[in-house]
Amino acid sequence: MSSLFKAKIHSAGYELGKPIIQNIHFSIEPGELIGLIGPNGAGKSTTIKSILGLMAEMDGEIVFQDNIQYSYVPERPLFYDELTLWEHLDFLAQVEGLDDVSYKEQANELLKTYKLAEHAHEFPNTYSKGMQQKAMLILSFITNPSVYIIDEPFIGLDPNAMKLLLESIEEKRSRGAGILMSTHVLDTAEKVCDRFLLIHQGVLAAQGTLDEIREQCQLPKGSLYDCFHSIAEGTDDE
Question: I need a labelling partner for 41 at 20 to 30 A (CA). Which of 64, 96, 106, 197 fits?
Answer without folding.
Answer: 64
